Amino acid sequence: MKVLTLKRWLITIISLTFLLIITIIFSSFQGSADITLRDAIGMVSNPLSQNWHDTEALILLKVRLPRILLGCVVGGALAISGVVLQALLRNPLADPYVLGVSSGSALGAIVAILLGLGINIAGLPSVPLFGFLGGLLTILFVYHISKIHRKISIQTMLLVGVVTAAILGAIIMFITSVADPQKVHGLVFWLMGSLSSQEYPMLLIVSLYVLIGIFVLLYHSRSLNLLALGEESATQLGLEMERTKKIAFIGASLITGAAVSVSGLIGFVGILIPHIMRMIFGSDHRLLLPVAGLSGSIFLVLADTLARTLLAPTEIPVGVITAICGGPFFIYILHKKRKSVFL
Length: 343
Fold this sequence. Notes:
mainly alpha; 2% strand
């Protein structure tokens, strides 16, 4: 395992950041509407031009760019949440959905959709706000039940999260089965994951929540390194176990809830990306967290680009693309790893 130096950290982060920028530029010019890089340069170089009011400018700035930036935020949040939960539960197969937070966010958003709450609350759409509230209530419930004698039990948290996710999933299926058929199509499409229909104000709010959570988790990356060793070893090394578990759980859950509230259920980002990045860059969370965040953003932006261009003008839910791409690849990795154990 390579020793993490500042030079290695900077080179890795700068390289992935550059790759993310290239991905954003590439995805911006992919779609059913033909917009070239030359058109965009012309609009930027002459901001007072009438070109800014053309259809191409509206598509680029009002439709594609917001969803691409949202893909960066959601992909990074899900990947980092997956890294943290895998360290917290000491299980490489853990992902942001294992504790039921995503199901809680989905249920909250579904309630807002079915009740027809198209209103704005404090200038923000009600559906993402209800989704975030649903995730927050789920966090509080799982956290409260998991405490035994004022200490968080990892095993209890995992069981409570799995059961809570199952119950909330059953409620979602029941609501879908009895809902107005005119609303079911949009509901199912949202549940399969979508990055569309989000404007810049909502993107800004979600980004602030996610960035605050990510910075808190990055600050505790050394503690996560100790946490991954096991509770007994971490305690002997001077780690405040309960405080670290609380921060890791709440931080990962909040950024997951914020992401799911605007994107729906997008699977495999939080389990596939951390696993691959750990294989490539090692398990030092000082590097693994930012690397997973940047890689998750790149992966989800490319997946969304494929979702909206593969059958254009028809759009495929991005959750379908991440499952189709991520599932077989993850099975291949597990199969290859298992073969190497027996050789």
